[in-house]
Amino acid sequence: MAEHKHPNYMAIFYYLAILTAVELAVIFMPIQKFYIAVLLCVFAVWKATLVAMYFMHLKLETRTLGLIAVTPLVIATLLVFVLLPDGFAVAKKTSDEKKVAAPAAAKH
Amino acid sequence: MTAATAHGAAAVEPAESPLTPESWGKLGMWIFLAGDAVGFGTLLAGYGAMRATSADWPNPYDVLGINLTALMTFLLICSSVTMVKALEWLSRGDKNRAKMFLLLTALGGAIFVSLQAYEWTHLIHRGLHINGNPWGASLFGTSFFLVTGFHGLHVTAGVIYLLATIGVVMRRPQPMDSYNFVEITGLYWHFVDLVWIMVFTFMYLL
Fold it and tell me: For the whole model, what pTM was predicted?
């Protein structure tokens, strides 16, 4: 039976633990909420990539298997863009309603 | 088929594909996981869309709290490590240690689900329901229970899968006979961990 090569699992574990701690620290950083959201997304994708590459051995597999693994991510990302116009439409409706409501409230 | 090949087929995963030279089973699991990932991706994208279009979406951080969930996240990462350790011991020929680490992984999953049940009970008592809550948009509760419930179901299935895997390791005579099987179980388990990383970020932290 062929000898199986294993990545340094403990190193990946420490890496993941540190990234989780950093993620928790990011929430309390005194920066704009938008930048916190961007940072959190970056860390989430970073951690997910580590798990897939080393724990799921994607790094040792063929490229095509990697493509199979990445496809759902592409589909989910595209779905966000598909849903965006819908979101903007409702957001605009809500803000229009607020504009109508605001002068009425100002009279009081 | 002769008796010898029949036995060989039972002990070692048969046949190979160009993508996964070890077995078709591995390719099958990857394709299943890709499909499952689309399911989770759709749920999370839907969550994002509902939240973006809502005027009174509660701040998840204030309602849900993250102390317990951060612990749960850490627990799931630990159980991923015990999973790969089981595989490592199997390749070194130590079946007993491999079984012990598989059991630890299943235990980690079981504790995770228990903590989730505790969290849910707590939140339901505070008024977070699937069709409404005191903090704002009722869809907040709907999406929370749907997404974390779907993930919790995966963890529960994973614990059962892990226990079945221990049975397979015990039944097959040589440690390497079950290597491929355990690696495929690991793929599923790490995927559940990976999804939780996403769910934790999008539903609790953001």
Answer: 0.87
